[in-house]
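Assemble and predict.
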Amino acid sequence: MTELFIRLMRKPQGFVGIVLLALIAAACLFGPALAPYAPEKIDFLGRFRAPGWQNWLGADQFGRDILSRLMVGARSTVPLAFIATFVGSAAGATIGVGSAYLGGRTDEAIMRTIDAVMAIPGLLMALLLVSTLGNGAGNAVIAIAVAFAPGMARVTRSAALNVRNQDYVKAAIARGEGAPWIIFREMLPNVMAPIVIESTIRVSFAVMLFATLSFLGVGAQPPASEWGLMVADARQHMHQAPWGLIAPSAAIALTAIAFNLVGDGLRDALNPKDER
Amino acid sequence: MLSVTRRLFLAGTAISLAGLPRIALAEAPKRGGVLRMSVDQAASVIHPMLARVNPEYLVTELLYSNLTRLKPDMTVEPDLAMSWEPNATLTEWTFKLRPGVTFHDGSPLTADDVVATINAILDPKTASPGRTNVGPIKEVAAVDPLTVKFTLAGAYADLPVALTYLNARIVPAKVIAGDLASLSTTANGTGPFKLASYEPDRRIVVERNPAYYDPARPYLDRIELLVYPDRTAEASAMISGEIDLLLTTAPGEYERLAKADGVKALRTPSGQFLNINLGCDQKPFNDVRVRQALALVVDREATVGFVAGGYGTPGNDTPLSSAYHFYKNIPLKKPDIATAKKLLADAGYPNGIDLTLVASDRPSTRTQLGVAVREMAAAAGFRINVQTMPHATYLDQVWKKGNFYVGFYNMQPTADAVFKLLYTSDAAWNETHWNNADFDAVINAARVETDEAKRTALYAKAQDMMNAEVPSVISAFFDLLAAQRSYVEGYALHPRGSVFRLDMASLGAGAPKRA
Amino acid sequence: MSLAWFARRLMLMVYTVIVVSMLVFAITQILPADAAQSLLGENATPEVLAALRTRLGLGDPAWLQYGRWARHVFTGDFGISMRTSLPVGPEMLAALSRSLLLAVSAILVTLAIAVPLGVVAALRQGRLTDTGVSLIAYLGVSLPEFVTATLLALLLADTWHWLPATGYVSPLEDFGDGIRHLALPVLTVSLILVAHVMRMMRSETLDVLKSDYIRAARLKGLPERTVVFRHALRNALLPVVTIIALDVGYLLGGIIVIEEIFAIPGIGRALMVAITTRDLPSIQAGALIMAATYAVTNTLADMAYAFLDPRIRYD
């Protein structure tokens, strides 16, 4: 693991990515403690205040400090995107590996069905699910997880198919090991690398999908300081107070970039022979 | 005793005898041109009896006519009815129709059409919102082809106003007898425009009705209605000249529009309001002290700032704003946290109280009010959790059932209308369940009172009662905001919010030539 | 490609469409806020609501409702919209045509920009151009569509007044105006697609440039231009075709946001409205159409793939 980390840090993109991630993690952990103001404190007189010494990044339409909302909002935005991706990946990985193990007709049937489900665009699937389950951040997480699962299943299955044909798996089957044992002890660990890479990149999609759902009004609800919701609100006042739009957008972009960079970096670090 | 009323109604007749409503303009409006108008949601329903939202009221107003119409000062003028007269006890009203009016298909308008329309609206099977809003009509009959007699269930002074209701547009009797549902996709009315094309999510086009009963109107050749779901983009379209008139806009965009070249921003105070409905028949709001405590934490002027962007007037827990005729100017309640805390303690909540406030997501100002009230009320010990939900779910699960939710209402044509809609025990939408018999008595007395001074006193008492007992917290009234290009003439915002009178609009100098 | 291959693809498409329709139907069944209440609103008495529910068949068991719907779709009848009382089929197909116009234009613009950029970045790997191009690519995929759309509209429409901010004018009615109105939405979608495609193009070109036969071609003394255009490009384009096919899925989804902001009455908007108003027939029809479009595009992509690389055999 440490060796992996060192290899990751050696590349410029890995390095930048890790640094950004560390910043974001810090915001998630210490944000509320370090924020200068309470994120929901309304200051009627300070509405739309421009960035200055009082509000470093300015104030929104309720006079709430944008910097504080960003710092506290990290907790609403990033971990939720993380969880959604994790759950989606776990579900997808299980299906993908299981399907690869079962092989033959079953594998094909499962994959064709997965392909069919993927014909529904991710955003549409998330929208449908959120309408069914109800608005709110929690349901948005479930919706995103379900929307991601088929894609992850596909990726995992290709990797797993590779692994299945390896000797150690054939040996395990010959030994008479049970299916769950083979899947979880032999195949899954070796499939981890592509799963981790794909998941890391997907977290950035989850962040953006979350923000889009909030924009459409079905994700996080006011007065949460979720970044996507901040952008959606700020859009309505963007001609009066453009800083309200730029700060959370930049935060979303940086987070997405961070995960993208780390994902790319991981891909390079885990496949050292591919020089790009 | 009836002299005041008689005079007012005779005045109504006089205008119609003089001919048709005159517009006081320096010069006659230019005839011709195409008006491009934008709305924020599709007019999914063009059935006049079933229309429910402003774009739909707009379309049905273009295609159909009522018996009477509301002027911008909230008084009534003739439309399809030329004159009207009540009997001595205000229980029977006779309306005389305008001769020579035809529907779009050429068939003549007669009293039978009016009778059939009113009956259809009153029929529960039609499920028309107008059913409880056109007044206490017991029976309607055709006396002769141009005269209609309404027999009411009780004395009612406001029937002409009630008949301006947005769903009380007159449709042909033969359509009602044949296939009423066909009005959802086709139109056959007496309005100033005819339906040219109907693609609800994209564009609705109406063209001048050459057989409209006033040959001078409408001035416009054609109106195109386009859907712009995003307010910001809509304002951009107005500024760049893509659209000539927009129905309604938000405070944030209003400021941008007011500064733009060639754009005239429109604003008028209205009786549209957000409130917080308190279920007065359940804990904790069955205790008037809790309600009064909540009323005392709200900074009303601040609420106007939050939810209306400053474009509004503060409310005093009564549904009447200064735009209403019988408004009483009660001194505005100021926030008083200490008294609020004491009231809560007296009511048995010395350590505060936990509540969940439901706000539907349409319009978004509901949530803004919820959030603002939450912050303000925290100081007195109210721990409020604001729960947003989709409008459809809200209608299904919370509206009229919940005991603590944010409501939103357009201005009604009369004080009686709004009290009877929301706050009497027999109200159509009795959301607060206040069920105050004394209040009911006052409203019922005012309804049949013809003496102006006495009526004013009664409505003043009603407002005092609501102000004191707070069945719902009403802290802000909205100004209506819209915008038009400078070359649009003859259009004014109507405080009712759902009356548009586009047959008076015309395009002046500088209007682009459109195909 | 044999007839058998086509037959298989067709069956797959049908299977996809069936799975999608069942899935969407199942989800809509669980939607809270019953359609009748949504339709009639605040003023319906319980009796009227009950009557409407019976008329719409909302009380029947799910499988019965689905069977009824499927039977009608088979004959081309997508039902009547619960919201507007207009037939769903024609409305949805008209909306689809507008979305397709946007999507196809965006793909063409993307190819025109991303392919050259990707190749240039590969040829100048490690240098400033490469880094600059990569940076823009990263930004393109790191901002949600509604942010990109907002920023582009703010810049190009509101500030510089180059393009109209919103609205849709049918090119059939007024070609010039129609194109002007499409420009901003197409640009927004392209920006994101360009980011994807360019990165793929770049890495594929890099791969191909290092391959043996390219080295052989160079050693043969062929001019660099011939090497790049005739040999490298053709092979690098292959995965790009796959990427575009996958991106159609993203396009169909992301288009919801674009159409919302730019007021384009396309299928994304139609679905959005259908979902918020619980207009079940429209939701089902819209999802079906999207799935069918996705399936058809994938098949076309596979055909293009086979065309570009004759080594690929389909049986």
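The CA atoms of residues 53 and 65 of chain A lie 11 Å apart.
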